[in-house]
Specification:
Layout: H1 5-23, H2 29-37, H3 41-64, H4 70-90, H5 95-123, H6 129-156, H7 168-191, H8 210-237, H9 242-270, H10 272-299, H11 307-323, H12 326-336, H13 343-371, H14 374-384, H15 386-394, H16 400-411
Helix pairs in contact: 1-6, 1-7, 3-5, 3-8, 3-13, 4-5, 4-7, 5-13, 6-9, 8-10, 8-11, 8-12, 8-13, 8-14, 9-10, 9-11, 10-11, 10-12, 10-14, 10-15, 13-14
Length: 416
């Protein structure tokens, strides 16, 4: 059966629950690695191998267990995320074992990523896909903002600390992931499995989706810099602590809550092609500025306190907002999809390519940071972001009739 308002409401609740879990965990890992394990810039880059490897494995795993249906796989994903976080919360494992449970947590997070978009589009009305995708993202940002404010206050007033016997932020995140499991179970009973209509392993790599794959690869580079090296400028170069990083995450989430809702409307109003231009220019501008700032810090031309810190913090926020433009790429793929069977595996293929690049960038970026200087990481990524501009020029605005047909076929995935 097709998704209705009841099913949409339940999915919004699920989004809110997972967003709280993310707010209590994801943005804290940089400081966790630094404060608990004393990781430096090179080590921070190496950690990205076990953290990003699940993104590659997911490419094959989603296809291998497709017979379960998207929602049941999403339940499994929440179980992985909760398990890893409970261990990291209740125990301080050795460095190597920490990487194992970080891998498990990351497996859950990455397994859910392509399913989130696929389930969301399957439940959306065919003439409101852009609007719904914007609303989903707005909901994520809204609850991420609230949870981040709570976490900020808890760390600011030393109620939570990475030096305590229990990392309560990770434990609470695990509890919310368990709650998401239960809500997904309810959704599976109400709406069916949102079935992918294929019974065997299948990886989709078609020439018709070449621009989507190219965008996914470049985003893998941009995302890794946004997650790892942007915050690391604040943590290592500017000596900012966990409460500052959380506060900046709150600001980004608060702005994003409104920005993403508006972005969904812009997609429906102005079309994918124009928004791809905005996506490209935003990344180019942010990373050029990051590189110039890092060069100035390294040369001693800027102080590492005061106003330069505020400017760097502003770039951190802009970078987070730029990364959320990924919804444009998802809607672009949906509008050119040839078959509903292609949607989830193509999203998984894109994520797999994204994460192969992410691992390479994480390790090589750490080497560049300690040998050449942090500014070169950002200059290289700004140059690579020109590929986004090339794609924006080359792609055609998706045909409205094709988009409507694709939306209808995606919707037909939702069954009893």
């Amino acid at each position: 059966m097709k998704g209705n308002k009841k099913h949409l409401a339940l999915f919004f609740i699920i989004i809110a629950t997972i967003s709280v879990a993310v707010g209590f965990s994801d943005g804290l890992f940089g400081n966790y690695f630094k404060e608990v394990y004393g990781v430096d810039g090179y080590g921070r880059g190496l950690i990205e191998f076990p953290r990003e490897l699940p993104g590659i494995i997911t490419l094959f795993l989603v296809g291998a267990i497709a017979f379960l249906g998207n929602i049941r796989i999403a339940i499994l994903a929440q179980a992985f995320a909760a398990t890893g976080l409970f261990v990291l919360g209740f125990f301080i494992p050795s460095y190597n074992y920490m990487l194992v449970f970080l891998f498990i947590t990351s497996m859950g997070f990455h397994l859910y990523m392509p399913l989130r978009d696929s389930i969301g589009m399957a439940l959306a009305e065919e003439d409101k896909v852009g609007k719904r995708m914007g609303q989903y993202a707005g909901m994520r940002f809204g609850f991420l903002t609230v949870s981040s404010i709570v976490v900020y206050l808890l760390f600011k007033f030393d109620i939570f600390s990475f030096e305590s016997n229990v990392r309560w932020s990770f434990v609470i995140a695990g509890i919310f992931y368990v709650a998401a499991m239960l809500l997904f179970y309810k959704l599976s009973r109400d709406v069916g499995k949102v079935e992918i209509k294929r019974k065997k392993f299948r990886v989709v790599f078609k020439k018709e989706y070449k621009f989507y794959y190219l965008l996914a690869v470049v985003f893998g580079v941009q995302k890794q810099v946004m997650i790892v090296f942007g915050p690391w400028v604040l943590i290592e170069t500017l000596s900012q602590e966990v409460d500052t990083i959380i506060l900046l995450g709150i600001i980004a989430s608060f702005i994003g809550m409104f920005f993403m809702i508006q972005l969904g409307k812009w997609i429906d109003r102005f079309g994918v092609k124009k928004l791809l231009f905005v996506d490209a220019l935003s990344f180019i501008g942010v990373y050029l500025c990051y590189g110039l700032l890092c060069m100035a810090f390294a040369n001693g031309n800027l102080l590492t306190y005061g106003f330069p810190v505020i400017i760097t913090a502003g770039l951190f926020v802009l970078d987070r907002l730029s990364a959320q433009m990924g919804v444009v790429r998802v809607v672009y793929l949906k509008s050119i999809i040839l078959s509903e069977e292609d949607l989830t595996p193509t999203l998984s293929t894109g994520m797999g390519l994204d994460h192969i690049v992410s691992i390479i960038v994480g390790v090589s970026g750490g080497v560049i940071w300690v040998t050449l200087g942090s500014q070169y990481i950002f200059f290289i990524v700004a140059a690579l972001s020109l590929i986004n501009l090339f794609v924006a020029i080359k792609v055609k605005e998706p045909n409205k009739a094709l988009a409507a047909k694709a939306a209808q076929s995606v919707k037909s995935e939702t069954e009893e």
